UniProtKB/TrEMBL annotation, chain A:
Record-level GO BP terms: regulation of transcription by RNA polymerase II
Annotated PANTHER family: 34 KDA TRANSCRIPTIONAL CO-ACTIVATOR-RELATED, MEDIATOR OF RNA POLYMERASE II TRANSCRIPTION SUBUNIT 27
Keyword set, alphabetical order: Nucleus, Transcription, Transcription regulation
Record localization: Nucleus
Database matches in InterPro entries: Mediator_Med27 (IPR021627)
Highest taxon in the source lineage: Eukaryota
Family according to the record: Belongs to the Mediator complex subunit 27 family.
Protein name: Mediator of RNA polymerase II transcription subunit 27
Originating gene: LOC113204962
GO cellular component, one term: mediator complex
Coiled coil segments of this chain: none
UniProtKB/TrEMBL annotation, chain B:
Keyword Nucleus in record: yes
UniProt superkingdom: Eukaryota
Compartments it resides in: Nucleus
Any one Pfam family match given in the protein's UniProt record, by short name: Med20
GO aspect biological process, one term: regulation of transcription by RNA polymerase II
Protein name as catalogued: Mediator of RNA polymerase II transcription subunit 20
Originating organism: Frankliniella occidentalis (Western flower thrips)
Assembly: Component of the Mediator complex.
Length: 295, 206
């Protein structure tokens, strides 16, 4: 790529030249002014004009010099289809070129970051997708947890809902394939769970009076803590080979928060610790514990 | 809004109102509270003119938590009719001067500092009737919970923790019939009105 710097200096040289030529002609056009005084005003005016012209001369030399420093490109620019943009005559579309350059820079950057991220992630062994890395000769068909038929997902979730009396589940598919689950537990909490197939990707727990959305956390400290614990539970219950069991276990665990405010901690026997109710539920027994009391 | 309990804090012989508030403020701070502005609940009482049949009383209450709302409760005999309206209703009551007259001496007010402790909201109110000190009211709100039955035990533990034995083991009588309902701002107002009634009856500070 050609370096831009000499081009910039050449352009600024031309700008100076133009400005100084303008100054010279303006002085000439104004003629003799009152500040030249009475005595020998013609000679003073001539001297001033001479000075201005010398400056113009110097500028012109600079311009020539900087142009000599420029190297003409070896081959003509290949602008592809964007070359046709110069043919655009509609006024409001003439600014498209700079936007085009901007978005090109963007995509270039995205590409660069993607390749970096890919290199990083491929080293990370904590991936949750079940990939068969061993080159086994007998290839068994794996049960995949993130590529499940929508009907099957609906069936699994509806079955679970029937088992949990206080839980109200609403299945939504905003982007056709994957399920976003709106869950409410009693009159205590609401949760929004994003699935990929039958794999739980994301969960946010919020208060019963709050509106649900995937990205904002609850206003209340209690539900922020429960969200945090729910993320831990998603990891804990994750079973790649039996995705439906893992979803069932997780929802049963979430259902136990029906008594979030009314159950006392099994550890200390009190309701409150640091002004917080027991926000932790044991994974196996579903017993309530405070964050500080959990075994 | 969450479940709220309005609790009367009994005065002792040797303490003045500001001293009690200061004492409670220290305790609330010890629980890790952060001050979050002031609060004010006031109540004006209007009586119907004798020419209009059996006497009726209208209580007009304002709560700084719901600044754009006026709560009014009409009492006629044993019946109570609550009304939740715009602040303009205050002006309407003034226009009804010939029917309902306001007794200035019975204007009640509870105001004081407001604190946040995790998800709890604690308000320490000095109660005055027509600028005379009457006692101290403590309001505790647990904001995440909507059903009184679910969090009464938790609230009781919290309140007994910093107010001591003056907190009864039973919820306020007004709430006892509504333990399974979703809590409304009007329920707070009813509790305040019940407390204000008690203060009006009392001759000295409570």
């Amino acid at each position: 790529m050609m370096s831009v710097e000499p081009l910039q200096t050449a352009l600024s040289c031309i700008r100076t030249l133009r400005s100084n030529v303008g100054v010279a002609f303006e002085a000439l056009g104004n003629g003799i002014r009152s500040d030249h005084g009475e005595e020998g005003k013609e000679t003073k005016f001539l001297f001033e004009l001479q000075d201005l012209l010398t400056v113009v001369n110097n500028n012109l030399r600079d311009v020539e010099q900087s142009i000599n420093n420029l190297q003409p490109p070896h081959n003509p620019f290949n602008l592809g289809n964007s070359g046709f943009l110069s043919h655009e005559y509609a006024q409001d579309r003439q600014a498209l070129y700079s936007q085009l350059v901007q978005s090109y820079k963007w995509t270039d950057k995205v590409h660069e970051y993607c390749s970096l991220a890919h290199a990083q992630l491929s080293q990370n062994s904590l991936t949750r997708s079940y990939t068969n890395t061993s080159s086994a000769k007998r290839r068994k068909i794996q049960t995949s947890s993130h590529n499940v038929l929508p009907i099957h997902v609906d069936k699994v979730i509806n079955q679970i809902e029937r088992l949990l009396p206080e839980m109200n589940v609403n299945i939504q598919r905003p982007f056709a394939s994957n399920v976003i689950l709106h869950v409410s537990v009693g009159r205590v909490l609401k949760a929004i769970i994003a699935f990929k197939g039958l794999l739980i990707e994301w969960i946010i727990v919020r208060g019963f009076s709050e509106s649900l959305d995937l990205w904002t956390e609850s206003r209340f400290k209690v539900f922020r803590k429960v969200t945090e614990n729910a993320h831990a539970a998603v990891m804990r219950f994750y079973m790649p080979t039996m995705p439906d069991v893992s979803v069932k276990n997780f929802l049963t665990w979430l259902h136990s928060f029906n008594t979030l405010f009314s159950d006392a901690c099994k550890g200390c026997g009190l309701h409150l610790r640091n002004a917080m109710p027991p926000t932790w539920r044991e994974f196996r027994t579903l017993e309530p514990y405070h964050e500080e009391c959990k075994p | 809004m969450g479940v709220t309990i309005v609790q009367h804090y009994p005065m002792t012989e040797n303490r003045t109102g500001p001293q009690v508030i200061e004492f409670l403020t220290k305790r609330v701070h010890a629980m890790g509270a952060a001050q979050a502005g002031p609060f004010l609940v006031d109540c004006e009482t209007y009586n119907s003119a004798p020419a209009f049949g059996p006497p009726r009383t209208v209580h007009l209450l304002n709560n700084s938590e719901q600044p754009a709302t006026v709560f009014s409760i009409l009492e006629s005999g044993q019946k109570q009719v609550p009304l939740v309206s715009d602040p303009l209703f205050m002006d309407l009551m003034k226009k009804l001067g010939s029917v309902y007259t306001c007794k200035q001496q019975t204007r009640m007010e509870a105001k004081g500092p407001r604190f946040e402790v995790a998800d709890f909201l604690v308000k320490l109110g000095t109660v005055t009737m027509n600028a005379n000190f009457k006692g101290v009211l403590v309001e505790v709100e647990y904001r995440p919970c909507l059903v009184p039955a679910a969090c009464w035990e938790l609230l009781r533990e919290f309140m007994q923790g910093f107010l001591g034995t003056c907190v009864p083991n039973q919820p306020p009588s007004y709430l006892q019939n509504r333990m399974q309902d979703i809590y409304q701002p009007l329920d707070t107002i009813q509790q305040y009105l019940d407390q204000f009634r008690e203060y009006r009856k009392a001759v000295t500070v409570r």
